[in-house]
Amino acid sequence: MSSLVPLAEGETMTAEIGLLLLIISLTLCLLTAMSPVMPACGVKLRLKPYQPLFIRLNSLAQVASLFILAYLFLSNDFSVAYVANNSNTQLASLYKLAAVWGGHEGSMLFWIGAMGIWSCVLSLQPNHKDRFFHYLHAVLGAIQAGLIAFLLIGSNPFARLLPGIPVEGRDLNPILQDIGLILHPPLLFIGYVGLAVCFAAAIAALLDNSQPLKQHCRLMRPWAILAWAMLTGGNAFGSWWAYNELGWGGWWFWDPVENASFIPWLVATALMHSLILGERRDRFHGTSLFLAILGFSLCLLGTFLVRSGVVQSVHAFAADPLRGGAMLTLFALVSICGFTLLLQRLPSLYRPVNSNMLSRESLMQLGNLLLLVAAISILLGSCYPLLYEVASGQSISVGAPYFNSLFIPLTWLICLVMGAAPLMRWQVSNPGMLRQLTALAAICLFIGLTLNTLLLKEFAAHFLLGSFACLWLLGCTGLYLHKRLAAYTGAGDNRRCYAMSFAHLGVALSILGATCSSYFQQEELLRMGPGQGKEVAGYTFIYRATETVSHTSYSALQAKIEVRDRREQHLAYLYPQRQTFNSNAMQISAAGIHRSLFADLYISMGNRLSEEEFLIRISYKPLIGWIWIGGLIMMFAGLSLLLPRKVRRLSRAPSPQLAVKGA
Known about the structure:
With about 675 residues, this protein is an alpha+beta fold. The chain has helices spanning about 15-35, 50-75, 80-85, 95-100, 105-125, 130-155, 180-205, 215-245, 255-280, 285-310, 320-350, 360-390, 400-420, 430-455, 460-485, 495-520, 625-640, 655-660; strands spanning about 520-530, 535, 540-550, 555-565, 570-575, 575-580, 585-590, 590-595, 600-610, 615-620.
């Protein structure tokens, strides 16, 4: 008979309280999920009136559990396995907080807590007692129950290391000790929660026949916009993090785990446009429901890829086949239930559409189709090696050439539609605008070919597509804003038009940055030591000294490299490092970067080659920062749509005195 191990002296039961709160949360989620189902099953117990109470108590329990885990990190409680595996006493407090979601168990708890908070906010809506919201909360409760059960059974973040409690933790992965960990995962998880809410709303809309679908989809629109904005920021910060931290200067590698968060973003983009289209035309609601179900299903599929160990990546959270199998089961349940219900309601969702092929709604639908094709293409490229290995027992890799050959032409087509659609009329074509767009396309093509001829030694199809897409979006956006401002009378709310224009501008800037950095970057791999120099892209780099740097969690060899501009004037000192972490002796390269609006100077420090010389990589990356500037513009353009409508200023309304005089 096994005996209970007593807690060590001075040790509290904080972790057990966190675990108890998760169990309470699971119970409340099940009650929330069953509340609209029990009357239909003939059970007399009425839980429906208490559903808002269950939701708020559940949110409180989940947030308290998350705060308890954060406290365990800050207090260095290494009796908890998750804390011992992802922290130590030398880790900075900010990274201890970020470590809460830096591993598998904590990131799942953060996801659950964010979903609980969002559910609580929805329960405070004035119409939260409607039948639609009861179904929505029931579905969200079922999803949370599944995730919490997954956490409790195989991924308990509060599991103890008893009786052998380590004196020191293993430390957080050095690659994760970056501001990117503070920004990138939370934004992605909030985006995933937004897609979960859209999924729940889609299921609720299919179950609730008391109100028209247009009203349900209109309620879904702000949630889809917020999910899209968070996923935009999450992917942008993830790319920026890889560029800064991994030391090789790349910003996107088509890694399967990168793709796992990019694919839902593509579907969320299509969902957002479909909801906007449905609100305006009262059509295409079935498409919106399909995209909502697909978007969250792909989030779960991506979670399976990240946590199952079927793909190897520096981004992966875990490598446990049992956990992966549980997540794959949850993905299958969500997908099968959602799409089965959609198929049952499909005949009633169909409404004939009478519109010209070159009308605005037709182009928007074409854009959504292209986004969906892009998402499926990336998904197939990410999963094909896994399927091939299962079928044949042999390994195969699908790299950047495959993804670039498909995604770049698809992006060009999407940009073509994206620029033209806002300028077209609803239902009918616009011959006059078609002539203007044809002329604009000819100008963009001519400029693109001219730039290709002048700047590159040979014809580059991808450069031409990128430059054309950027010029086309800038031209179409400028033309659209000109027409809107010319027709503006001072009445109405134009935020949606301006937000759309700035989002499209952000896409153009990101494409410009990606195209220029890909085709015009210059790079040298050198053997350098003190006193040695090299000219790259007109800049002179002089290795001045090798310094030793000590930090709380690591020690480093640091190169002091002076940069001089094209006029031989001092520009900056860059300090690339070769860091060795105290806890595990792991070595990583920390780049030295000089940032400017038009180019980055990027230096990474490799292995020691002799007593004084190191392997140094110097890169000149023109306009690379515009990739993330464009991403931030897109993110904030989406968030601007969620701000409350402006109250018309009193100065615009006639005063009572003027009204009397006018009478």
